[in-house]
Amino acid sequence: MFESLQERLGDVFDKLRRRGALSEEDVSAALREVRIALLEADVALPVVKDFVEGVREKAIGQEVLRSVTPGQMVIKIVNDHLVETLGSEHSALNLTTTPPTVIMMVGLQGSGKTTSCAKIAMRLTGKEKQKVLMASLDVRRPAAQEQLRVLGEQALVKTLNIVPGEQPVAIAKRALQSGALEGYDVVMLDTAGRLAIDEELMAEVAAVRDATKPHETLLVADAMTGQDAVNVASAFQEKLGITGIMLTRVDGDARGGAALSMRAVTGCPIKLLGSGEKLDALEDFHPDRIASRILGMGDVVSLVEKAAETIDQEDAEKLAKKMQKGKFDLDDLASQLKQMQKMGGLSSLMNMLPGMNKAQMAKMQNAKLDDSLVKRQLAMLSSMTPKERAKPELIKASRKVRIAGGSGTTVQEINKLLKQYQEANRMMKKVKKMGKKGLMRQGMS
Ligand code: GDP
């Protein structure tokens, strides 16, 4: 699921990340591409519109423009919005404390309803140690009841004995009675499917619902059918009232539009995913994990979160001001190195610095700043006098020997550090040349 969407969004974000400063036009252009990507993934149009507008509002506002990492901030906003669209939190099945819990499975014929019923029952019986009884109410499709019995045997789950000629409401009542008498924790009712939304069958399911008052009415929908699945879900929601959705065949759907639209259109949470024909191909639906799967960049999201925690906005602004003036001394280098230590790695910090492009980053990375090196460099810097840090050109041969002695390093290492500082300083001057405009765009002037 989501492969094509992932690819499209990956391209959009790659472009964004390569830029230091972002203008409103940059954000708009990126959002146009996000919109196309979502539409191609078969996400319902109203959902796409809401989504893009929501992201735009946040992105154009202070959040991005004041951020030290505009490109990544946009990605984080898209991610957060995606999680919201998908339903924010993972919703588990409603299991009551006063058993038996009644779970009614509804959906179109062929959506994978009976298989999903057995999958859930197997999980509840196994991992969650619940005593589960399944009953098929499908008296229309020949052999439907037998199918559930066979699946029950495979899943080691009890099924209600079949009484030929018995009608759905009567079967359901008998299942509930057995459930209560025999101490079952959960009773699962597999209702009859239909090829399309059909009034008569809908009335039948409504009658079962009224007779059994299910705690969970789980709609099973086939993700491969995209928008149709969303329409089916809306119809069921409207006519019957559903409490959750299980999306099946996510193993076969490369677009994932159904998953993205479902929650927004029905207001009902997706609770489970069916990812294969086997009975153990059942997954919980976690909006945050799905979102990072779609964006293929959970790392970036946590990185931005980490940056927000560790990079002090004031410090960043101070640094930006210095950069703007082309003033960058060894104290700044020291505070940068300290932040780098907190952040865990040069490359992540470099990504966060405004005005940094890929080539410059690669160059800095070649300098191979690892943890122990950073420690040594900080030792050298703290062995310098404040005057030396403010005016690095004071550091001549004799001072170098003193600093090396004080920090337990060598003169060669001091030279390397000073060279690195000069390099960084050159870069800051370049950023200065980029002009006030570039910095203003980020709200840092
Ligand atoms: P029902 O008519 O809604 O009860 O559908 P069934 O449970 O009989 O399933 C129809 C077909 O879909 C069967 O061949 C199942 O093995 C298959 N199926 C069900 N769920 C999944 C799934 O998550 N992935 C895949 N690939 N196939 C599934």
From TrEMBL:
Q: In Gene Ontology terms, what is a biological process of this protein?
A: SRP-dependent cotranslational protein targeting to membrane
Q: Domain named SRP54-type proteins GTP-binding: which ranges?
A: 269-282
Q: Which residues cross the membrane?
A: none
| EC top class named in words | hydrolase
Can you tell me which residues the record assigns to a coiled coil? none
What InterPro entries does its record include? Answer: AAA+_ATPase, P-loop_NTPase, Signal_recog_part_SRP54_M_sf, Signal_recog_particl_SRP54_hlx, Signal_recog_particle_SRP54_M, SRP, SRP54, SRP54_GTPase_dom
Which of UniProt's keywords are assigned here? Answer: Cytoplasm, GTP-binding, Hydrolase, Nucleotide-binding, Ribonucleoprotein, RNA-binding, Signal recognition particle
Spell out the CDD domains in the cross-references: SRP_G
Q: Which GO molecular function annotation, any one, does this entry have?
A: GTPase activity
Q: What SUPFAM superfamilies would the database entry show? A: P-loop containing nucleoside triphosphate hydrolases, Signal peptide-binding domain
Q: What is its main location?
A: membrane
The family database entries (Pfam families) matched by this protein are listed as:
SRP54 (PF00448), SRP54_N (PF02881), SRP_SPB (PF02978)
User: What EC number(s) has UniProt assigned to this enzyme?
Assistant: 3.6.5.4
Q: Does the keyword Amino-acid biosynthesis apply?
A: no
Q: What reaction does this enzyme carry out catalytically? A: GTP + H2O = GDP + phosphate + H(+)
Q: Where does GTP bind?
A: 107-114, 190-194, 248-251
The record's note on its domains: Composed of three domains: the N-terminal N domain, which is responsible for interactions with the ribosome, the central G domain, which binds GTP, and the C-terminal M domain, which binds the RNA and the signal sequence of the RNC.
Q: Which HAMAP family match?
A: SRP54
Tell me how this protein assembles: Part of the signal recognition particle protein translocation system, which is composed of SRP and FtsY. SRP is a ribonucleoprotein composed of Ffh and a 4.5S RNA molecule.
Which family is annotated? Answer: Belongs to the GTP-binding SRP family. SRP54 subfamily.
**Cited function:** Involved in targeting and insertion of nascent membrane proteins into the cytoplasmic membrane. Binds to the hydrophobic signal sequence of the ribosome-nascent chain (RNC) as it emerges from the ribosomes. The SRP-RNC complex is then targeted to the cytoplasmic membrane where it interacts with the SRP receptor FtsY. Interaction with FtsY leads to the transfer of the RNC complex to the Sec translocase for insertion into the membrane, the hydrolysis of GTP by both Ffh and FtsY, and the dissociation of the SRP-FtsY complex into the individual components.
Q: What name does UniProt use for this protein?
A: Signal recognition particle protein
What organism does this protein naturally occur in? Denitrobaculum tricleocarpae
